[in-house]
Amino acid sequence: MTSSEILCVKGLHKSFRYYASPLSRLREALTGKSCHQTEKVIDDISFSLERGETLAFLGQNGAGKSTLLKLITGILLPDSGTVQKNIRITGLLELGTGFDPNLSGRENIFINGQLIGMDHAEIEGKLDAIMAFAELGEHIHQPVRTYSSGMVMRLGFAIAIHADPGCFVVDEALSVGDIRFQQKCLAFLRQFQADGGSLLFVSHDLAQVKNMCKRAIILDKGKIAYEGTAQEACNRFQAFMLESAPQPQAATPHFPDAGIRLNNAWWWQADQPATQLISGQWAELRVELTVESPRENLALGFMIRDRLNIDLFGTNTSLQQIPLVFPAPGRYTVAFPVKPNLGPGEYVLFLALHDQDNFEQNVQFWEQSFMAFQVSAPHRNSVGAVYCETRPPIVSKE
Ligand SMILES: Nc1ncnc2c1ncn2[C@@H]1O[C@H](COP(=O)(O)OP(=O)(O)OP(=O)(O)O)[C@@H](O)[C@H]1O
Q1: 63 lines ligand 1 (CB under 6 A)
Q2: Which value does ipTM take for this structure?
Q3: Nearest-CA residue for atom 16 of ligand 1
Q4: Start-end of CATH 2.70.50.60 domains in the chain
Q5: Of 131, 132, 113, 133, whose CA–CA distance to 123 is shortest?
Q6: Domain 254-397 is in which class?
Q7: Which atom of ligand 1 is nearest to the CA of 63?
């Protein structure tokens, strides 16, 4: 380890054993014969972290990000390889790790605090500050098993940050809880960074990764697939995710009794089909259907979701008070004029055709992620997920 490094990971390997049933495990213990399968989850990972550096880990679900963080913090032991660190690393990993559900929040502060390296006197000294940060009020005296996941997160975060770590580990857990508390945690983390603290960060929110981190590693099936600036890593990861996202194609109906098939759907903007829309300019979502017999009383709708699968905007013909009538069999196109006032980024389109009064009835198709598309904002005068029209600010003196 060099003098500026606080963490040095070398040749880390970790596999998990999988047994078909508890009986297989018992059989192996009794007979000594192998009755398990092994899956390599971390495969020869090496990297180092300098003091004050912020490093993000990106990767698809199951890529090994959380396992790597647990190896670094010592929650898990590697099969081989080393984790050298010369500072205290704390953070939020699995919600509730190190909490006894039957003890109160206050009692758990002592248990969890000791687990992450504080001694009793240090915890006594910081108890009031930890309880104030967690904002649990009288709940602090109730057993942790009665807490919501957001409350567990508050308590875990409050303890972890008061351990004066040199490096703080943030897994997706930060996305739990109410937005005001999340903002408070993020503000804390920014101050922690400004004061020279290091961060290891796992998030599927690439905007947050770019905002919080300078460097990033993309993990793919437990191996390092890319290491570089957070900006470049996010671009590569985004491109990879878009490639692997469902593309427009003939959809097969999921509903055997459906008499209407979704053939295709595509965006149209500036007189041509578009996979990249320009924010704030009129576009059209065209949905092409094959109708086998005359139908009415249906609603065709769409929902735009962001990459975290959060609903951003949806509408349907019923909400728009447009009767959807297919008087004869044939191919139909339904066009929705839409002005996508969205921030630049990747989005996914959900399409469904169902009863006009009840979306669970007469379902003809229900395509959760029919296609991915991008939105660009060439005249950037804003940031964020939505685009609100603005006029130049007016400065006036009282
Ligand atoms: N304790 C465990 N026992 C067995 N398998 C495990 C254990 N922990 C993780 N795994 C497996 O290891 C693989 C990697 O999981 P991990 O949680 O590290 O991925 P991840 O990149 O953090 O995914 P996500 O983005 O979904 O959180 C997965 O296949 C997971 O099922």
Answers
A1: yes
A2: 0.94
A3: 64
A4: 254-397
A5: 113
A6: mainly beta
A7: 21
Taking the domain 5-243, which CATH number applies?
3.40.50.300
Tell me the CB-side half-sphere exposure of residue 299, using CA atoms within 13 A: 18
Report the chain's terminal Cα–Cα distance, integer Å.
59
CA of 211 to the centre of ligand 1 (A): 26
Distance, C-alpha 194 to centroid of its chain? 25
Residues of the chain with CATH 3.40.50.300: 5-243
Q: Which residue in this structure is represented by tokens 């240090």?
A: 122
**Is any atom of ligand 1 closer than 6 Å to the C-beta of 66?**
yes
For residue 367, what is the enclosing H or E element? strand 365-376
User: The tokens of 222 are what?
Assistant: 């437990």
Digits of tens for pLDDT over the chain (398 positions)? 788 899 999 999 999 988 888 888 888 888 888 888 889 999 999 999 999 999 999 998 889 998 999 899 888 899 999 999 998 888 776 656 678 999 999 999 999 888 888 899 999 999 999 999 999 999 999 999 999 888 888 898 899 889 888 999 888 666 666 767 777 888 888 889 999 999 999 887 777 788 889 999 999 999 999 999 998 998 888 777 766 655 544 444 456 567 898 999 999 999 888 888 999 899 999 999 999 999 999 999 999 988 767 789 999 999 999 989 999 999 999 999 999 999 888 888 999 999 998 887 888 988 887 888 889 887 667 778 888 888 889 999 98
Q: Is 308 in the pocket of ligand 1 (CB under 6 A)?
A: no
pTM of model > 0.90: no
